[in-house]
Amino acid sequence: MFKKDISAGSKTKVKSSVQRGIRAKVLETYPLLEPYIDEIMPKKEQLDLVKLPDRVSLYTLPPQPLFYQHMDDPLLPHLTLIHRYPHCFPRIRIDRGAIRFVLSGASLMAPGLTSPGGRLPDPSAGDDYDYGKSDLEPGSVVVVEAEGKENACMVGVLKMGTREMKEKKKGVAIDQGHYLGDGLWNLGLD
């Protein structure tokens, strides 16, 4: 979606009633953000809506990008927000071989997640397992981490559930997402 560099379109202030609705939707979608929501979206601060190409809306707390949304799709966190609060989102991990493909804008394929370096939610894992115990369904927003790297490299919506990925071990896991170095990451909001 953001393979090429993009330029910001019109910028408008978000009404306080709409801002409360966005805040409620964020808490509904990402309940682990609740302790940090006042840091992320303070009630007294003004959110901005930046229009981007292809009907994408970017919500910012100038100059910090927070969430983006394509038409009526779910609100997706920007990678800078994920890097500040990494354990507040459902996560999966790709192996080292998939990193270069993800960072070049390719679709994330299931073999990169089901190989020995990849990690998916595992109901049989111990309590110290970082990737969750319950399988994720198609349409879930998920953060993609990379084997051996500290920060997340991508965020997107699952095309197939994690249980199906474990069974089939092939196919597209995430079709389009926001990744390090893409147009949204490089967007200047000054």
UniProtKB/TrEMBL annotation:
Q: What is one GO cellular-component annotation here?
A: cytoplasm
Which Pfam family would be a valid example here? Answer: PUA
In its UniProt record, a GO molecular function of this protein is: RNA binding
Read off the InterPro entries from this record: MCT-1/Tma20 (IPR016437), Pre-PUA (IPR041366), PUA (IPR002478), PUA-like_sf (IPR015947), Uncharacterised_CHP00451 (IPR004521)
What keywords does the record list, in alphabetical order?
A: Cytoplasm
Per UniProt, subcellular location reads as: Cytoplasm
Q: What residue stretches are annotated with the PUA domain? A: 90-181
The record, for PROSITE patterns, names:
PUA
Q: Which SUPFAM superfamilies match?
A: PUA domain-like
The keyword Ribosomal protein appears for this protein? no
Query: Predominant location of this chain?
Result: cytoplasm
State any GO BP term from the record: formation of translation preinitiation complex
- Entry function: Involved in translation.
Entry's NCBIfam families? unchar_dom_2
Q: Which family does it belong to?
A: Belongs to the TMA20 family.
This protein's name = Translation machinery-associated protein 20
Name its species: Patellaria atrata CBS 101060
